[in-house]
Amino acid sequence: MKMRKHCLNGFTIVELLIVIVVIA
């Protein structure tokens, strides 16, 4: 969960792609 907090400051394309895949 710590990584997620860090990503909040700078969401990366990879993270966004993973989220899209999870939602899909």
Helicity range of the residues? over 70%
| Stretches with pLDDT under 50, minimum 5 residues | none
Mean pLDDT across the residues is 74
User: Could you give the order of the helices and strands?
Assistant: HH
Number of strands: 0
% residues in beta strands: under 5%
| Helix count from the secondary structure assignment | 2
Spatial extent as radius of gyration: 9 Å
| End-to-end distance | 22 Å
Shape field: elongated
Largest sheet: none
Structural class: mainly alpha
Features of the shown structure:
24 residues, mainly alpha, 2 helices
Explain this structure.
- This protein is mostly helical.
- Helices cover 79% and strands 0% of the residues.
- It is built from two helices and no strands.
- It is elongated and about 25 Å long.
- The model has no long low-confidence stretch (mean pLDDT 74).
